[in-house]
Each structure stands twice: as structure tokens, then as C-alpha cells.
Design goal:
Layout: E1 54-58, H1 63-74, E2 78-83, H2 88-100, E3 105-109, H3 115-129, E4 134-137, H4 153-174, E5 183-187, H5 200-220, E6 226-232, H6 240-244, H7 247-251, H8 269-276, E7 287-290
Parallel strand pairs: 1-2, 1-4, 2-3, 4-5, 5-6, 6-7
Length: 297
């Protein structure tokens, strides 16, 4: 386990490429990744900053969502996670970690490309936890295509529905349940600002997430609810080897960051904790970049 609390050289704190070739079919499983990502399973320590809160996190089985779910539970929140049925093995591990903290854990398997499921998912989370104070819309589809001619209408449709339509449907369902002091957090990407040529549809949706969240924040603050965006750079998640990047890019993933390595999901978790907590009481409509030195503009 990496000690996150002892002063050390951040360039050497976690594994750096080259990594082994490890292609997976979408959506992929964390348990098949080498090296295994650090989601905070052993390294995240909480301090009660979200005591008694109720959180819903989409894509909570792996990657960033998994790290946020673990952190929220260790900060005292009950947590509901949504995920695809194929991701059940990863989700079961997260549910176990949430329950180990003595918190309510709600498993919500389903496809957020389905509008009716998005509404049902929110209602079940509210019912099982007894409310909703924190909404983290994080689940995403990323499948590279080398050329615009290879990006099919079906590709575009699936990415738009997963990354943007679901954001809207889930927000519509959740907003009536959010009370003053609640927080909405969305996950964009550096791709919104520096789009890769092989991620046309993904980058488009991430730019849309920024705009949607900024606009939504203006509405929600009128009822005392804040909305903000986190924009990660290269993070070592199962999204990458399961079609998110070509195999060769996965082998060298994160090499071009200032640190010479990708970020680990646990390194993002504190930003989500801050934005969810009352300590962020004057933060609204902002984009927090965690990009390994690349910045957002």
C-alpha cells in the first residue's frame, strides 16, 4: 500500500508506464487490470466530513466512481452506486467496502441509456437511503475511433446517451429531492479543453457536461443547492484498456503528464469530498481540473 500521508516525490508515488498490454472488452473489470488501480481501498482515511449524508454515484463500481464511493462512505455518508449488470463483480466489492464502514449501501444495476431507468434509479436510491444530499454523475462511455469515417451513428448515439442524456434525465429526477446544502458534482475531462482526435464523440460530451453543469448551477443555487464539475486528466481506470484507448496508448498511458505517470482514482477522491461537503459552501459553477499539470482553460 502506498502511504499517501508521508511527504514523498509525487512522480514516484504510484506506478509509471510502460504497462503490460491488457485489452478487455467493454465495460471491463478492475480485477483484470495490471497494475491494480488504487481506489482508496486501503489508502483512503476519512474524518467524518460527510456524516449522515446520502449520496448517489453513477459508475460507482470502478474507476473514479469507485474511489468516490469509498471516500464518501469513510467520510460518513450512505452511498448508492449505479453500474451495468456486467460490472457486478466490481460492484459487489464496492458494496462490501461501504458496508464495512457501517453505512447503508445500495446497489443499482441498470443501463442509464434508458430514460425510465434513470428516473427509477433515483427513486430507489432515495427510498432505500431515506433521502438524497449528494449527486455524483460520473458514469461514461469512451470508445476510440481512429477516423471520423469510423465513428458510426450507433457509436455517437450510445456515447451521447450515456454521457449527456443520462446527465439530464438523472438531474431531472434528482433535483426535486435536493434540499438546501445539497451538492451536485459531474465528471467532465481535460478532453473538453484539449480533445484527442480519436475521441470525437467522447470529447464532445465532456464539453457538453461542463456547459450543462454551469447552466444548471445557476438554477440550483436559487434553492441553495450547488453544482460543480471535476475535469480529470489521465487516470488509471478500466475505461482505458476496455476500448477507451488503443493498446499501445494504454501501455504508455499518462507518460506525458508532468509526473510521467497516470493519476490513481484515489488522488481524485478528495476533490469530490470537498465539493460535496459544507466546506465548499461558496463554490458553485466551477470546474476543478486534476490533470497532472496540463490544466483546463
Amino acid at each position: 500500500m502506498t502511504d499517501r500521508f508521508t511527504m514523498q516525490d509525487p512522480r514516484k508515488q504510484y506506478p509509471a508506464p510502460p504497462f503490460e498490454a491488457q485489452p478487455q472488452s467493454m465495460p471491463g473489470l478492475v480485477q483484470n487490470m495490471l497494475p491494480s488501480p488504487d481506489h482508496g481501498e486501503e489508502s483512503y482515511k476519512g474524518s467524518g466530513r460527510l456524516a449522515g449524508r446520502k449520496a448517489l454515484i453513477t459508475g460507482g463500481d470502478s474507476g473514479i466512481g469507485r474511489a468516490v464511493a469509498i471516500a464518501f462512505a469513510r467520510e460518513g455518508a450512505d452511498v448508492a452506486i449505479s453500474y451495468l449488470e456486467e460490472e457486478e463483480p466490481d460492484a459487489e466489492a464496492v458494496i462490501g467496502l461501504i458496508e464495512a464502514e457501517g453505512r447503508i449501501a445500495v446497489a443499482l444495476p441498470g443501463d442509464i441509456k434508458d430514460e425510465s431507468w434513470c428516473h427509477d434509479m433515483v427513486e430507489k436510491a432515495v427510498s432505500d437511503m431515506g433521502g438524497l444530499d449528494i449527486l455524483v454523475i460520473n458514469a461514461a462511455r469512451q470508445q476510440f475511433r481512429k477516423h471520423v469515417s469510423e465513428l458510426t451513428t450507433d457509436d455517437f448515439d450510445q456515447t451521447m446517451k450515456t454521457n449527456l442524456y443520462a446527465l439530464h434525465w438523472i438531474s431531472q429526477a434528482a433535483v426535486p429531492h435536493l434540499k438546501p446544502g445539497a451538492s451536485v458534482i459531474t465528471t467532465a475531462s481535460i478532453q473538453a479543453y484539449e480533445p484527442s482526435p480519436i475521441l470525437l464523440d467522447y470529447a464532445t460530451t465532456k464539453a457538453g457536461i461542463v456547459a450543462y453543469t454551469k447552466a444548471l448551477s445557476k438554477q440550483l443555487i436559487e434553492k441553495g443547492v450547488r453544482a460543480n464539475v471535476v475535469a480529470p486528466g489521465p487516470f488509471w481506470t478500466v475505461l482505458q484498456p476496455s476500448g477507451g484507448q488503443p493498446d499501445e496508448k494504454v501501455r504508455h498511458f499518462g507518460e506525458n503528464s508532468d509526473f510521467g505517470r497516470p493519476g490513481q482514482p484515489v488522488e481524485l477522491a478528495p476533490v469530490y469530498v470537498l465539493l460535496a461537503s459544507q466546506e465548499a459552501s461558496f463554490i458553485n459553477g466551477e470546474v476543478y481540473g486534476v490533470t497532472g499539470g496540463k490544466g483546463v482553460a
